[in-house]
Amino acid sequence: MIEIKAIIRRERLKALKDALAERGFYGLTHWPVSGRGKQRGVTVNGVVYDELPKEMVYIVVHDEHKTAVVTTIIAICQTQPKGTAGDGRIFITRLDEGYTISEQLL
């Protein structure tokens, strides 16, 4: 199994959830986060915003679905054809085990 964590622009969350659902990936968890990347925040009208609001999206899929999910995230979350700073990051981790609590399996 593969654990996928993506930090994305908040305004892309609904489109991403819809696109993943269209491809059969319904299960995900998300929560608001804030942080900064290479751009070290932004300045708007003379006001410096050191950290920017983002959304963390967490998805667990079988190995064979990793590419489909990652390409969907990129397709939906890039703001221009080649992307721009602040579009986000994707982290992939191998997951040894996962349990559904309601199934009471060990």
TrEMBL record:
Q: Does the keyword Lyase apply?
A: no
Q: Which Gene3D superfamilies match?
A: 3.30.70.120
Give yes or no: UniProt keyword Iron: no
Give the keywords, sorted. Nitrogen fixation, Transcription, Transcription regulation
Give Gene Ontology CC terms. cytosol
One GO MF term, please? Answer: ATP binding
Pfam families given in the database record: P-II (PF00543)
In which domain of life is the source organism classified?
Bacteria
Q: Which GO terms describe its biological process?
A: regulation of nitrogen utilization
Q: What is this protein's function?
A: Could be involved in the regulation of nitrogen fixation.
PANTHER family (UniProt xref): NITROGEN REGULATORY PROTEIN P-II, PII-LIKE PROTEIN GLNBI
- Write the protein's name: P-II family nitrogen regulator
